[in-house]
Structures are given as structure tokens and as C-alpha cells.
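#struct-pred

JT: dropping the chains for the assembly here, can someone run the whole complex?
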Amino acid sequence: MVAVGYTAEAMLPGDRSARARALTVVLAGFLLVAMAVSLAVGAAGTSLWGALGALLRGEALSTTDQVVLWHIRAPRTVMGVAVGASLAVSGALMQGLFRNPLADPGIVGVGAGAGLGAITAIVLGSFLPVALHDALGYYVVPMAAFLGGWASTLLLYRVATRRGRTSVAMMLLAGIALGALAGAVSGILVYIATDAQLRDLTFWGLGSLAGATWSKVATGLPIMLPALIAAPFLARGLNGLALGEAPAFHLGIHVQRVKNAAILSVAAATGAAVAMSGGIGFVGIVVPHLLRLASGTDHRHLLVNSALLGAALLLFADVISRSIIAPSELPIGIVTAVLGAPVFLWILFRQRGVLDL
Amino acid sequence: MTLSARALTVHLGTARILHGVDFDARSGAVTCIVGPNGSGKTTLLRALTGEVGYGGTVRLGGLDIARAAPWALAERRGVLPQATALAFPFNVLEVVRLGLPDPDDAGLARSALARVGLRGYEARFYQELSGGEKQRVQLARVLAQVREPAGPDGPRWLFLDEPVSALDIAHQIQVMRIARDFADQGGGVVAVMHDLNLTAMFADAVCVLSAGAALAHGGPVEVMTDAVLSRAYGCHLRVGRAPPPGVPFVLPHLAAEAAE
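RK: done, full complex below.
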């Protein structure tokens, strides 16, 4: 076979990677806009632009403005970026791993498992050996959420996958069972929780970026970041897995390693996101799906673009959640559900043929 | 360079699918594996490619298949499965690129598509193709993966599991010619085949499997005889000679069946 040389500029028919790369640039710009809006909007009348102008003129900010911008809006924006990127990337990873566009940590019970981990840590954390509890410190809740997410992803994969093929029905049914079990155990834990713990639980369970602090960001990020950084390295493996496990092996992919890394990454990203912000649904399924429609399935681009779009969309949802009934706040989980659930139904509608199998 | 398997035994669950099979193939030749349904053809191919665990040894040149890393194997050989369902809407160019170590080497993907007669199909969605077109796209992916029949460090190998079962007769011949050319240019080809006549036309060596054991192994003229094939398939078969090079052809012998 003689390989024919092509210049990089020539558009090849069927080559969607140039479009995907252009999309990366557009989405990065979109994310910057979202971050600016998130910093600029809030219940306090502080104006980001006024503050920036003051800084440029060399004037000092008022204490209120400093607190609002640096201690309230900035950590909230960073947390929105981290959580949005984590949810979207874990959705894309899970869909690649399960070879199914309907797999999403929120839908198939991984979020519920992570939530159970977080609740267990909040309620029973004080029963941990003192040394361990002190060593983990603020990381108790996110670590427990990570472990809960990991156990449920592993269990789900074992139940739903046989000889390298994942059954959609098994995956969804196992997800329902996992969700129900996690809900029941969480219910029991709520009964034995103290009043202070109940307050923590309620606040956390609403699914919200409210209450973002730098220390909260600092406990979640070290768990999320390795997963987000690892994700692009799994791209070639996930592309190969789209053919099935055996063909992926024949392409030179160490299938078991890719699967293990993907499961760990999903658990870490979902677990830390759930621990930080409670259950925020639909980001993980809607974002990768829209991107697949726009520029194809190649995971080399899909994972990066998912992180950018997920972060930007979550920031906008958060802006809506805190401005629509200002000065009070709508939990962001409600906003993402209102926006995401209809899109999910539309995806289901288009995927009817797949589900009938 | 040769592919050689010794005393291959494969268990799937509690069932013993292969017992003590010896198998040889050399580069520069097309070696076909034939046998009735359930005789272990596909399992033999899976063992030879390292896809299933086995007892015994398989060596591809200097490479011990059981110990080799997936990427070391992938450099030496490509494997075409019987049928491939894709999880996501990839287009044809993207499917072929899946095989490439450098996915941006679109020229290689395009020449592989031209090789299987699918030039101009690049932007079509894989899911929307016919069964035969899908099979040829997968063949293009495998051809792109191995790049060339003979590399600087030795021959490349193609392992094909029923490569023509979904194809019409013209495309069957097209695909078998691709395999033939690959071997003629120094590569190795091992194919599981159902069609005995195509096998006789294109194979340099034939391995007849029956009930998990190798019944015969050799050139098509020596191996494809009334006795061997009838015994392997459990029905009366008569082998004739097509003119002029004397390629065997196989017909069912219904009269002998009726006489029993």
C-alpha cells in the first residue's frame, strides 16, 4: 500500500477533527464568559467591572467588595468550573466505558452511591478511629463519596457487562437497585443523625454551589484533578473500546488497564463533585451528547470539550439559580433538571431503536 | 517467519473447545482454517491472536503470544472479527482511523479504504452501511493498522474470521484477492473460512478442524479429499478438479447419501 501524502490544511471528507478542535477554542471562550458572568452576578450589588476599574486605577476595594468577590463569588465560580467539568467528563468516560450513550453517573446510581458515602461520612464520621479521622480531616466526606462512587461503578460494571458486552437493560435496572439501596440506607442514617448533622445533610442534599468556600474547594480539587487530568489519556483506549473489548485488545490497547483507570476516574470525579455540591443531575449525559452531535465521538476531543462545556453550562445554571428568585436561591439541581430532563427525554426518543435490543 | 502453535488446548467455561491442536502458517502464504460449525475454528483463531487463554504455546516469529504486550502484538498483526457493532455514530473515516497509532495519518486511512473499494465513503455513517460494506470498512481498518505486508522488522500478519461470510460473490473474490496480494507481498494471512471452494481457490495451506482437533493440515490438493472432508463435515462430499490449474472444487454427493 502506498500512503498518499496530504497537507494538513486540506479538508478531508469525513474528517471532523478540525471542527472538534475549533469547537475547543470556542468553548474555552464560552467558559471565560461564563466565569466573568458568574463573578459579576450576585445578591450583593458589588460590580465586578467597578471593582476591576478601581483596581486598575490603583484604588483600594471596600471590605465588603473584597469579601463578596474573593470569599463568596470566586470560590463559587471555581467550584462551579470544577464540578461542571467533573460531571461532564465522568459522564463521557462512563458512556465510553459502558459503550452506551445513556450511561451517566447520576442515572445509573453512581451518584447515589457517592451520596451514600458522603452521608455515611457526615453521620458516622465521628465513629472513625481518631487517628484516621484526624489524618483525613476535611477529606473525610469527599473520600467517602469517592469510595461510594467507586464501589457502585465497579458493581454496576460487574452486573451489566458480560464477555465485554454491556446490556443496557441490566445497566439501567442495576442502577435503579443501587439508587434504591443507597436511598434506603441514607434514610436510615438520617434517622440516627443529630440535629447539627441533619442541617449539614439538608444543606448538602439540595444540590447547590451555595456555601462554596476556598477550604471546600481545596478538599475536592485534589480528588477531582487527577481524574480530569487522566481522562484525555484514556481517549485512545475508549475509542478502541467502541469496537468492543476484543477488537480493542487487537488494536494494542491494554483493555483491563483502561477500564480500571476509567472506573477510578469516574468515581473520583463524581465522588468529589457529589461531596462538594450534592446531586446535580443531567450535566453528564446532556453535555457529551450535544458534543457528539456537533463534532463526533472521537474521545480525544470529546473529553476536553466536555470539561469546557460542562463547566460553562453549570456556571450559567448557577447564575440562573441565584438570580431568578433573588435575593433567595433556587437549588441548582432544580435548574439542571428543568433544563436537562427534557433534553434527556429527547435523547431517549432518538435512541428508541437502541433500547429495543 | 512462521506462526506456530503446539499442543493448543482451550477451555471456555467447563467445555473443552480445542484439545492438543498443532498449527503452522508461514508468511507469504494464505492459510485457511475450515471445519463444521462448532469445530473450534473461531476459538483457534482467538487463541492464535492471544484473545483467549490457552494451554500450549503460540509463537509469532520470535514473539510468545501469551507474554507479549497488546501493543507489541498490534504492531505485528491485525485481526478482523466476524462482525463488529459500534457503540457510537462514527463515520467510515473515523472507524478506519481507530486502527492507526497516529489517528491523524488520514492518507493511510484513505488508501486502505480505496484498497477495499470504498473510496468516497469517508463521511458516511458506519451504522447506515450494509453488512457487506461494514465488513469491508473493518477490513480497511485492519489493513491500515498493519500498514504494509512486510515491515522493516519482518512480515505483518492478518487474522481474518470469516472475512467473506457477509459478502456477495464479487466482493468475496475482491476480499480474497486482497488477502492473496497481502501474502504475495510477503505478509502472512490466516483466515477462518466457511466456503470450501473459495478456500481451494485462494489457500496455500488448509487446516481441517473437527471436534476441536486438527484432522488434516497441508496443501489444498492434499488435504481437500473426499475422505477427509466427508469425515470432517459428517456428510458425503465429492471433490473434483476445476480446469486448468486443477483447483479442487467440492460438491455435496446426494446420491451417496441416498444410497445409505
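JT: nice. Chain B has one domain: 2-259. The mean pLDDT of chain B is 91.
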